[in-house]
Amino acid sequence: MNKAYRFFKLLLKYPFKWLYRTTVIGAENEPAAPYIACANHSSFADPFLEGLALREQVSYIAKASLQRFRIIHWFFKTVGVIPIHRDESDVAAIRTSVNALREGRTVGIYPQGTRIPYRVPEPGEAMGGLGLLATMSHCPVLPIAIVTKAHKPKLLRKTIIVIGKPLTEEDFRELGEHPRKPEIASFCFAEVARLYKEAYATL
Fold it and tell me: How far apart are CA 185 and CA 20, in angstroms?
């Protein structure tokens, strides 16, 4: 974990815990890096909530257009965010992500591709990039559900972050001998959706 990431994590941990009333379930399921963190996405707060719940430093894949703001460009570079051009095939971003995993880092991805608030996540919303990343890196996928009553984190409202058990290439064999990338993505995100629905029932 680099010094800047550690600094921001210490700075934001307790304010976010108080502001979003966070509870983490399944922290023991987090493996050692490298792995791919895969979660539902409904709010700009999600990377902070997720990152604060995990032990490892996470290099998130985020849309490059956010970097038009100088302060965000600086923040992305400082904490290791991987920019991606969402509306085109960004081979460079995938290559950077795979290299980060091969270097022993953790990469965070939101398979829905964009924020989808006020709705329960569904397996079919996952885009194939997650499957491509898992196939190329051979790293486990850690399913994470960010759960709230409103289906979007809100200030002073309870947020549950559920960390599931890692999914490996051995698990993907349930899909067949040579599963396609979109099938792997849907398979992993189905676990996110399952964790979400189970936790939501307790709210």
Answer: 29
Q: What share of the chain is helix, strand, coil (3-state, %, to 5)?
A: 45, 15, 35
Report the helix count and the strand count for the chain, using DSSP H and E: 7, 7
pLDDT 10s digits, 18-37? 999 999 999 999 999 999 99
> How far is 44 from 143, CA to CA, in rounded Å?
19
Q: Is 98 helix (H, G, I), strand (E, B) or coil?
A: helix
* Cα–Cα distances in angstroms (integers) from residue 29 to residues 122, 137, 141, 198, in the given order: 22, 20, 11, 17
pLDDT score at 174: 87
Strands 141-148 and 159-163: antiparallel
CA–CA distance, 135 with 148 (Å, rounded to integer): 31
For residue 72, the tally of other CB atoms under 10 A from its CB is 13
| Average pLDDT of every residue of the chain | 91
**For 47, what's the count of Cα atoms within 13 Å in the CB-facing half-sphere?**
21
Q: What is the pTM of this model?
A: 0.93
DSSP codes joined into one string, 71-96: HHHHHHHHHT-EEE-TTS--HHHHHH
Q: Is the pLDDT of residue 66 over 80?
A: no
For the segment 190-202, the average pLDDT, to the nearest whole number, is 97
